[in-house]
Amino acid sequence: MKKKSQLFKYISADFIAANLAWFAFNIVRYYLTAAQNFSALSDFMGYIHVVKGQVVIPFIWLALHYYSGYYNTTLEKSRLSEFFTTLATVLIGTVLIFFCVLLPNLPESIRIYYEQFSCLFLFSFFFIYTFRLFITNHAAKKIKNREWTVRALILGSGEKAAQIKSLLEKPAASMAYTVQGCVDVHSDLGNIIQTQGIEELIVALDSDDENELTNLLYSLYRYKLPIKLPLSYSKLLTGGVKIKTITGFPLIDVMGNNFSEAGKNIKLTLDKLVSVAVLILLSPVYLYLAIRVKTESKGQVFIKQERIGFHGKPFVIYKFRTMREDAEKDGPSLSSENDGRITSFGQIMRKYRLDELPQFWNVLKGDMSLVGPRPERKHYIDQIVKQAPCFYLLHNVRPGITSWGMVKFGYARNIAEMIERMQYDILYYENMSLMLDIKILIYSIKTICTGKGI
């Protein structure tokens, strides 16, 4: 509830601040350039373009703040980071509003351009940052006085759990913790989490058994809570995780990655826009492929398989059928280049990756992204993690239609090749960025156009 309340405060404050900034700017604007065209300030403030701006521009600011990633984190905010994020967003917003809204209505004068741009920037930054700083300082005071704490549950009942409990209950620099207890991993966690309102899980096993830890992490994903590990477990991880230091004690954020908050929001929006465009524009292609699949061999047009996706959540993936209907009558089986189960038209679709087209529906639903690690079936994941426990890191991002592994390695024919391909996806995870996504998309289009999908 604290997070939702803080989010509401920040959004409301930004909306009010944007209104005040536009109102104050227009008062100054009147005396700088508009007084000669209006008999009184009240006439100018009631001018239709000024009123429209008063209504529309605050929503433009909210959209910019969303894409800056400012609203993704509400409690553990760095005031220094907040200053620079606000400064950058206000600068971008001022440029956008100045050139799109103000410039067409201004007389040609360099002096006036500089005056109006500066006034809009200063008013916007002053009101937005002042309101934000007040809310952030208020939250920091609440945290420092331990009026706001994170209700944490430590999974473990040994010496390590007791040590972490002692450290977390000391005053923290960024967030205070109230440890609700140390419990055995075989306890009824779902009931404990629900009845005690647990907000964060901290794993502290005395055992160094990698398989035990990996299985536990997989079981925890379904609770959709932040999961933290002591630094001693870092051998299971890679460089692509966030380390959070609390009272001098480093914890690894298993659910985090190095992708910027702004990048996450932009990526999500682009996923939705591109998937809608593809589904509409390529609808004749979908119809043609569906007819060819149906007429060439008996069976359904689409195949549906359960895959493991974001935060370990199962979802149903859709593909055009490329194999005979009874291809997996004996259970899950990976295909190879000359697999006799693949139909003749299925070979063509695989070569140009056309069988993957229905997955744009998965992207629109939010199960997948355009770019991300390829989702696997639990049957294969259970075998992979025995040899490569760090595979679970890939569940911290949405799986993709295409991936660095698919571009550089392609389809895998066995578990060994799946693990080899996984190395590329781990590399992607550690270096996630919008530019890397664009690079992978370009390579993927090249693969499709040259027919090197197999």
Quick recap:
The chain has 454 residues and is of the alpha/beta class. It has helices spanning 2-34, 41-45, 48-67, 79-102, 110-144, 159-168, 189-196, 210-220, 261-281, 283-296, 344-351, 359-365, 378-387, 404-408, 415-430, 434-449, and strands at 149-155, 176-183, 200-203, 227-230, 242-246, 249-253, 302-308, 314-320, 369-371, 400-402. The protein has three domains: 2-144, no CATH class; 149-253, NAD(P)-binding Rossmann-like Domain (Rossmann fold); 261-449, no CATH class.
Question: Explain this structure to me?
Answer:
This protein starts with a helix and ends in a 5-residue tail after the last helix. 54% of the residues lie in helices and 12% in strands. The chain is flat and about 85 Å long. It folds into 3 domains: 2-144, no CATH class; 149-253, Rossmann fold, CATH 3.40.50.720; 261-449, no CATH class. It is of the alpha/beta class. The chain has helices at residues 2-34, 41-45, 48-67, 79-102, 110-144, 159-168, 189-196, 210-220, 261-281, 283-296, 344-351, 359-365, 378-387, 404-408, 415-430, 434-449; strands spanning 149-155, 176-183, 200-203, 227-230, 242-246, 249-253, 302-308, 314-320, 369-371, 400-402. Helix 6 (159-168) links the parallel strand 1 (149-155) and strand 2 (176-183). The strands form 3 sheets. The protein has a 6-stranded mixed β-sheet with strand order 2-1-3-4-6-5, covered by helices on one side. It has a two-stranded antiparallel sheet with strand order 7-8. A two-stranded parallel sheet has the order 9-10. The chain is built from 16 helices and 10 strands.
